[in-house]
Amino acid sequence: MTERSNAARWVPLAIALALGALLLAGVLISRRGNREALPSPLIGKPAPAFALPVLHEPQRIVRSQDLRGAPYVLNVWGSWCPACQDEHPVLTRFAETKRVRVVGFNWKDEREDALRWLEQFGNPYWLVIADYEGKTAIDWGIYGAPETFLVDADGIVRWKHVGPLTEAVVRDELLPALEQVEQAGAGLRL
Fold this sequence. Notes:
Layout: H1 3-32, E1 51-53, E2 61-63, E3 72-77, H2 82-96, E4 101-107, H3 111-121, E5 127-131, H4 135-140, E6 147-151, E7 157-162, H5 167-189
Parallel strand pairs: 3-4, 4-5
Antiparallel strand pairs: 1-2, 3-6, 6-7
């Protein structure tokens, strides 16, 4: 065997090792990095308009303008989403404070599955709207569940989190963003 053919046998292994190293570096960076590495282009802009059925009353349609007048948290979830089940106790505790309306955005789910999931794990939502086909989710830039948005009283998106809510995310990100929204709203009323 020639020296050249010996070297050629090692090329695929070297490529695989290089790709593995890149993948590992990406995972390590994402673990210690900010989950907002890809910030939403919606921050500071009006929430996308929608007209969606209410999960529990499918004949009732809720429009984005119906939610104006007070801030709300929009939580994207699905019965098919394991991470949504992980975040559910945290979301429930947050919703129980009644500090802000928590609106569920049921995404690409079967109605019966979503209702059964809420029956099993509890319904922390003030209202649940359903995007069965996922078309409205595209306008919101949703690419996974769970995702959570904070929308102010004027319908402007003020905060977004990709992934499950944790106690730390609620304490360190959502509550400070909510305080800013509340202070800005109070300033307008003076």
